[in-house]
Amino acid sequence: VNRFLSLQLSISSGLSAEEVTRMKFLCQDKIKKGKREKVLVGLELFSILMEQQVIAPDNLEFLKELLRHISRSDLLALVEQFEQGELQAPEDQPDEHEKPFDVIRANVGRDWKKLMRELGLPEVKLDKVERAYRYDLEEIVFQALREWQKWKGKDAKVADLIRALQGCNLRLVADWVEE
């Protein structure tokens, strides 16, 4: 699946009708009135902005500005994560088989920060994830693990996760990950 289209879908599904209306208002100088009036959901708006080359996978400033103006820092964080992922070369990505995230996400809970500190993830990254997903603990854990994985690149190993889990006295979770 195209990551940019997936990003647009994620943002669109998180927008209320009122937020789409506010974004349309902010696009008055970019989209003619007739086209603007037909837009009902975020995906339609993004499609027009792409056609007019206002946004693109490598040009997301206008989209970020729209999200800032409607005060959706959670969706803005998705765009920023997308940008960071785009900047990494595919060979810098960890092995796809080294993603025991579901086990960790479902079982770490409130100890997530302790685990991330044990893995050496910088505080600024922890704060960013916590702000973006403050109402969804499992998503915080998942996104923090993704941040760690991006930060470490090819050096993000399951063995490190297991050691960190053991270091946080989460031995049962470590055993499940090992399995």
UniProtKB/TrEMBL annotation:
BP GO terms, sorted: extrinsic apoptotic signaling pathway; positive regulation of innate immune response; regulation of apoptotic process
DED domain residues: 3-81
Domain named Death: residues: 97-179
SUPFAM superfamilies: DEATH domain (SSF47986)
GO MF annotation, one: death receptor binding
GO cellular component: CD95 death-inducing signaling complex
Domain of life of the organism encoding this protein: Eukaryota
Name used for this protein in its record: FADD protein
Lineage, broadest ranks: Eukaryota, Metazoa, Chordata, Craniata, Vertebrata
Gene field: Fadd
